[in-house]
Amino acid sequence: MRKPGRHFLQIPGPTNVPDRILRAMDLPTMDHRSPAFGELGRRVLDGMQSVFRTREPVYIYPASGTGAWEAALVNTLSPGDRVLMFETGQFATLWKSMAARLGLDAVFIQGDWRAGADPQAIESQLREDRNHDIKAVCVVHNETSTGCVTQIPEIRKALDAAGHPALLMVDTISSLASIDYRHDEWGVDVTVGGSQKGLMLPPGLSFNAVSAKAREAAKTAQLPRSFWSWEEMDGPNATGYFPYTPATNLLYGLAEAVDMLHEEGLDAVFARHARHGEATRKAVAAWGLEVLCQEPRHYSGSLTAVMMPQGHSADAFRKVVADTFDMSLGNGLGKVSDKVFRIGHLGDFNDLMLAGTLSGIEMGLQLAGVPHQQGGVQAALNHLAETPQNSVGDVTPQNKRRTG
Amino acid sequence: MRKPGRHFLQIPGPTNVPDRILRAMDLPTMDHRSPAFGELGRRVLDGMQSVFRTREPVYIYPASGTGAWEAALVNTLSPGDRVLMFETGQFATLWKSMAARLGLDAVFIQGDWRAGADPQAIESQLREDRNHDIKAVCVVHNETSTGCVTQIPEIRKALDAAGHPALLMVDTISSLASIDYRHDEWGVDVTVGGSQKGLMLPPGLSFNAVSAKAREAAKTAQLPRSFWSWEEMDGPNATGYFPYTPATNLLYGLAEAVDMLHEEGLDAVFARHARHGEATRKAVAAWGLEVLCQEPRHYSGSLTAVMMPQGHSADAFRKVVADTFDMSLGNGLGKVSDKVFRIGHLGDFNDLMLAGTLSGIEMGLQLAGVPHQQGGVQAALNHLAETPQNSVGDVTPQNKRRTG
Amino acid sequence: MRKPGRHFLQIPGPTNVPDRILRAMDLPTMDHRSPAFGELGRRVLDGMQSVFRTREPVYIYPASGTGAWEAALVNTLSPGDRVLMFETGQFATLWKSMAARLGLDAVFIQGDWRAGADPQAIESQLREDRNHDIKAVCVVHNETSTGCVTQIPEIRKALDAAGHPALLMVDTISSLASIDYRHDEWGVDVTVGGSQKGLMLPPGLSFNAVSAKAREAAKTAQLPRSFWSWEEMDGPNATGYFPYTPATNLLYGLAEAVDMLHEEGLDAVFARHARHGEATRKAVAAWGLEVLCQEPRHYSGSLTAVMMPQGHSADAFRKVVADTFDMSLGNGLGKVSDKVFRIGHLGDFNDLMLAGTLSGIEMGLQLAGVPHQQGGVQAALNHLAETPQNSVGDVTPQNKRRTG
Amino acid sequence: MRKPGRHFLQIPGPTNVPDRILRAMDLPTMDHRSPAFGELGRRVLDGMQSVFRTREPVYIYPASGTGAWEAALVNTLSPGDRVLMFETGQFATLWKSMAARLGLDAVFIQGDWRAGADPQAIESQLREDRNHDIKAVCVVHNETSTGCVTQIPEIRKALDAAGHPALLMVDTISSLASIDYRHDEWGVDVTVGGSQKGLMLPPGLSFNAVSAKAREAAKTAQLPRSFWSWEEMDGPNATGYFPYTPATNLLYGLAEAVDMLHEEGLDAVFARHARHGEATRKAVAAWGLEVLCQEPRHYSGSLTAVMMPQGHSADAFRKVVADTFDMSLGNGLGKVSDKVFRIGHLGDFNDLMLAGTLSGIEMGLQLAGVPHQQGGVQAALNHLAETPQNSVGDVTPQNKRRTG
Predict the structure, then answer these.
(1) The complex's ipTM?
(2) Which of A63, B16, C205, C383 could cross-link to D63 by cystine, CB 3.0-4.6 Å?
(3) Do B22 and C28 touch (CB under 8 A)?
(4) Domains within chain C, CATH numbers bracketed
């Protein structure tokens, strides 16, 4: 049976791709060795530096985000190297498993999935590592499985306080272009990003922003690499080209995405996400439910993970919402499987889409027989109305944006 | 400044065109004299008969809806002919003005814009017309300016009761494919439709469904006509062609629209619109505001017109909503200019889109300082959750629909 | 069976709609009463003035081209008015039939379909009309059925020489934006245009460019009109709006089309069409076939009609081409049905597309057993290579154009 | 300056992406964990088995083709393993360099770039390898840099004749879905493919078709791997899912591409490419130029590399063609840089597009002052007309294909 109206894709990525980006990609593939391609290439390479807030090179892979995790590791490390990682949730766990599979010695600081990485635990491990066996500290900025944000400047400070030379690597897959992030200012060596979240693109592109220190490390790193190799990129990238066939149509979309982010303003983008996170948490509180993230300083603007009351299945609830209201919510992953559901409020999103999303959840809780109190939507609306955004003088619908 | 997320186009048409239809139109124009075009032509001509619920011919104009009003009149009437029309609202008034401009003697039964056409008033006028000077009775099925639905079977009964031979002409521009309508069963002679409402297309196509009696009248009707002439259509239409260049790409979209309506099922489409109308009125009542339509039997499933409290500008309110929440609401037209706003809940629409729409209104009322009570959204959600739809076993997002 | 590669749509309109225009139309329909719509409206209204080369108003109809013929007549004339028309071909004949159907007294100067309108014949008729019963002279600029161009300045001169006050009306449906045309400079009163030829859009929009004299005539013209009425347009058009729902998505495309024409430059557009016409005629000559147009001064840049050798069916030939090479050629219309085929070389077209087109014809002639000599393609290539265009310094593929 | 008409993208990939595929990708990204995604996933996984002509698993990477080269190596081999490769041209050379970078011992049999791989040279090397140090033989099926096809069954026979247990790995990036290929029947262990050539998609997807023997080898292979790991794929793939976020929108396009290939029929697709290769070579011969491939049995249906006369720059010629005729031709790579140009005639392509392509080359040769004889286009047209394809009874333009 046809489901009328738009699907609400409220998983924490892939996100709702705006028409402007879909249409930018819906054009003939061009010759990747033509002069026009070089212009496009430089445009997206420059653009991504502005998004990562870096003057260092950004490498763009024609591959989805998991690949950029691998790129960060294989370019900088050698077999058996020790890396320190922090269990913020499922994605930190997967990155750790990848490190192990690649032959690294991954030390994993355990966490309870209810906060970001703990800088003190990291500092303490680093201080103990007198021989500097640890070659890299890897943390996830925004844990997509929990909705907890690690404060990267605090992690940087932990390394500095310990006087430890390890590289700092950060996964920003679900925070880039949604939550404030500053590659250079925060002293990160490798930042990993992907296309399908705050950048509002379909999956298929991923990124490494790389410090001079990391590029130096690459010179001696022994892990075998070819597809992911940074050094192959530098030459062609200088004039906007790539060492092998790039994902041209996704690059069309990326150029458009960067334009759109700057039209709105990165700070406005971050504020929008933060405000939607706050409104969502007010709804959760009014329902009498609990947010997975226990540390208010670590609340995420990208997504909110909500704990189900004891004895109730998150997946059964999500199925009711999907079947009745044509909305996809994120499932609980790993340790919190079936115990939480996740609300994505990132990407190309606005107040009325959030109101629709929370309405679907509130009605779904009722239909699925999940104990809760009404009033979550109302609480969110009150917050949104008290903090109105977008107070500009003129209606600017979809088409105008593109041609304006 | 870029406004993030999707625009909410909640005027009572044009409506939110689904991606499936936009993409169907986004293909090269074909040769309108090729064999493949003939297949497309018959497909849409047959399809529109199913939508009008008629076995009589449907004529498709490469022109927007106002043109189909003119087509209905010029094909059947002669200069100076008397037509009886009923002032249900602004669109009835415009159709009457058109009739007068075309040289017809338009008799206009006054109405207060708060109900559909009154069958007794019509019957009474017809009874008085002993000479049968009245050649046609013209009513608007769903008054887009007021949200009041005329009960067409009652109008048919009025003509029959009066034993009057006038043609019955009905404007279904904002009801076709949204509110139950039956051209044959209800004994209508000319039904006028347009593409940009329940058919979910952009504007640019319009329709006449025509009874044998109306086609007979066309043989002697003296109003000059060429572009709108039905008789030019019959020959080419038989094999799926048109007497002059058709709006090919809109026809691609129309073929897709008819498929989509039948995938959902016309009765399900009507029930969906009725339920959304009911939820909307519950919201309006909870806000303590008044719906323009005073006759519950005439409530519209397509749109709801809401009266502003005395002394408050509907247009100022709409501007706040547009500027703050990127939503277009319909303005008050003619007599009710600035006194009402109109909520379109027709076309490709679902529960969460309605929830977002009503949320934008409730927050807008607050920001614009319009006296009201909170709780409209909550009242609507309660209604929607008590009457859940779409309870199918499987999520079927956008792409699946198209290729499935 | 699937036919691989692109269809060659080489009828003289609708033409190959470029991706840029299809994509511009593939966006959500906007509120036609919003501020952003007003901007779009003024943009296309101003843009169309530049295309018609006029400072007079241009009226845009949400209707295909035949409607704009009707608009020209009903706005300016009264029942029984005499109009002088010239039989340049099938479209002149159809316009004449329309005039008759609308109750006008259409005087038709016969032609042999092998040249444009004859100014002397027109002047002579006007001189005889001492009472000035003739209210309008109507000619087709580029006869789509024959590929003969009427020299409009000569027609203007004929009216002036006869001292006759009749309005001059010109159909530019298949010449606008393909062949040089100047509404103001040439003293035309009503110019009729359509969207699906040189403007590179799908069918569904049409135009009247209107002189002050024609607007003055409209004040007393008695033919009934409402949908087509110019006077309803002026008020809303002033701020970019329309008196009834416009064909919004086609207007998105029109805005893009006007931009594209000016990026190339109108004079370059005209030169390109003329050069392609010349190359085509060289091919026809090399094949030993005859071009329908006998008057070199009247050769068309939009299309070339080619006469079949005696005893050979043009339609059988066209079917071979369609079936074997997936190319649509124009059929012979009316008097020349099955005797000519027409090659459209207008719209978004270039040298290699023309080479492919002529190659399909040359191979089709061979496969269909039509007597001819080889070498047509070669002759065309020689002409194209001797007169190279587009000699710019840089490749600028599809995507660059859009975003550049 | 705008260049009118369609760009001719006649490099040997990326190829001209058909509208049907672009439009299939131009839809909202779906939840990659939803039931509907599982259906899509199985559909493309099954579909790719039919394209590779295998009943073995096919792994789909959200990465461009170079990645699938790496996947083939890292899944099956251990550091220091010897691989035997054959220098068919630039891509064989690049694959060899990759192997070396990944720590393999790549033995490279030299070739002159004018034929496919030599089975005798391979057999001889294998016979000498008494200890079976060679773990894999890697050949390129269609060398994109030269237009020479290696006969894979002969290579298989060479391994068998030598009684050598090495894995056979084949790169089909520019032959898959263009030139006959049979993974199972030909006894290949790993076949590498990409999306942007015969599959008619943009770049961004790549493939490994994998024999049981190769999967067995993977169990002991020691090269580190995670992103490329086959074993992670099997579990999720069984129900249509992937171990990490897939390139969803490219998968939409892939599903459409597989449908299109089967609508035409794979054998018809291969025959079409072969015929276009033959017509192209006839043109080259008529120009008096030489095809790079010297071995007629190795001629490619995907592309033709043409040698420039001594003292003439291929790149200068290509620039003339690009600037004057808006066509991209492939450049000479590596050893033949500036000495050859390459004509891509693969993907979504037909006779008239080929005629346009060859016309652009013939005119370009003239404009660039390259010594040649006229008549290449004529020679190709003669071949095409003597061997007509697509002789079906009905025109079936673009739109019909999609909706029919």
Answers:
(1) 0.95
(2) A63
(3) yes
(4) 8-15+265-386 (3.90.1150.10), 19-262 (3.40.640.10)
